[in-house]
Amino acid sequence: MKICIIGFSGAGKSTLARILGKHYSIPVLHLDRLHFEANWRIKDRELFVHEIKDFLKNNTDWIIEGNYTKYVKERFLEADGIIYLSYNRFTCCKNVIKRYQKYKNKTREDMAVGCKEKLDLEFLYWVFHKGRTLKKKKQFKQMVLQAKSGIILKNRKKLNQYLNKIGVNQNEISC
Fold first, then answer.
1. Whole-model pTM over 0.85
2. In the 3-class helix/strand/coil scheme, how is the chain assigned residue by residue?
3. In degrees, to the nearest 5, what angle opens at C-alpha 92 toward C-alphas 168 and 64?
4. Distance CA 160, CA 155 (A)
5. What would you measure as the largest C-alpha separation in the chain, in angstroms?
6. pLDDT band for position 70 (50/70/90)?
C-alpha cells in the first residue's frame, strides 16, 4: 500500500499520516522533516530529492505526507491512493495556533531536529492566503482526479467517516 497525503498547512497531514502508518503498520515519510535542517534552514534541493528517492526505493509500502509537488513526482504515480485534506482556511489557522500552543519551543516528531515550533505573521499569512491559492487548489484536485484512487476530505467529520470506513478505532486516532 502506498498513500500520498496532500493538503493545506494546518489541515492535519502529519497527524493523519501517523494514524494511517500505525493502522497499516507501514513507514511514514514526513516531507517537512527532510526539507528542513535545524533552525528552519532549507536543505539542499538535490539532497532532499535524493532522500525521497531513497525512501521510495527502500520501502515497498509507505505513506508520504506533504506537498512539495514539484519534487519527485513519481511518488504520486506510484501511489495507490492520494488523500487531499481540503479544510477551510479558518480551520487550518485554528489548528496551526493549537499546534503552536502544544509544541511551543519544542520540535514536533514530524519536523527536522532543531526546528522548534514557531508562529509568526508570515506563516499565518501563508496558512490563510498564500499557501492556498486557486492554482494550488486546482492542482491538488487534479492530482486526486488522476490518482488510481483519490479522496478529498473537506472537514473533520468527513475525515472521521473515512477513518471509520477503513476500520481505524478511536485509540488509533489519539496518536
1. yes
2. CEEEEEECCCCCHHHHHHHHHHHHCCCEEEHHHHHEEHHHEECCHHHHHHHHHHHHHHCCCEEEECCCCCCCCHHHHHCCEEEEECCCHHHHHHHHHHHHHHHECCCCCCCCCCCCECCCHHHHHHHHCHHHCHHHHHHHHHHHHHCCCEEEECCHHHHHHHHHHCCCCHHHHCC
3. 50
4. 9
5. 40
6. confident
